[in-house]
Amino acid sequence: MSKTNTKKASPAATASKGRPRIDPEICKGCELCIEACPEGCLKLSVHSNSQGVPYAEYDPAVPCTACKSCAVICPDCAIEIYKFESGV
Ligand code: SF4
Ligand code: SF4
């Protein structure tokens, strides 16, 4: 089961402040992170992990604010957030 993420990127977000790294082998495809992301950066992959589960992935076309909401809500700690250095 998969569904399309229809959230729109925030108009104020013009550039990513970071990005999530999602471990596809830990992800169980619960979609909690997708629902939690205020920017709509996340979606279920069309690919599956070794357990046959479609995993969450980052859509680089949508700027990530590095708010960590996805990482906090993930029950399996499958997400790490990398913040970009400012001023570069
Ligand atoms: S919340 Fe965690 S386990 Fe659930 S889809 Fe997102 S990364 Fe996967
Ligand atoms: S850190 Fe925030 S903006 Fe970035 S993918 Fe996670 S929930 Fe979305």
Mean pLDDT: 88
Low-confidence stretches: 9-13
What's the architecture in CATH terms? 2-Layer Sandwich
**What is the number of strand segments?**
4
User: Secondary-structure element order, as H and E?
Assistant: EHEEHE
Features:
single chain, 88 residues, alpha+beta, Alpha-Beta Plaits, two-stranded antiparallel ribbon, 2 helices, globular
Descriptive overview:
The chain has 88 residues and is α+β, with helices and mostly antiparallel strands. Helices cover 11% and strands 25% of the residues. The chain has one domain (22-83): 2-Layer Sandwich (Alpha-Beta Plaits), CATH 3.30.70.20. It contains two helices and four strands. β2 (42-48) and β3 (54-58) form a beta hairpin. The longest helix is centred in the middle third of the chain and has 5 residues, at 32-36. The radius of gyration is 13 Å and the shape is globular. It starts with 17 loop residues before the first strand and ends in a 5-residue tail after the last strand. 20% of the residues are buried. The structure holds iron/sulfur cluster (SF4) (2 copies). The site of one iron/sulfur cluster has 14 residues, from α1 and β3.
Topology overview:
Elements: E1 18-22, H1 32-36, E2 42-48, E3 54-58, H2 69-73, E4 79-83
Can you describe this structure in just a few lines?
The chain is of the alpha+beta class and 88 residues long. It is 11% helix and 25% strand.
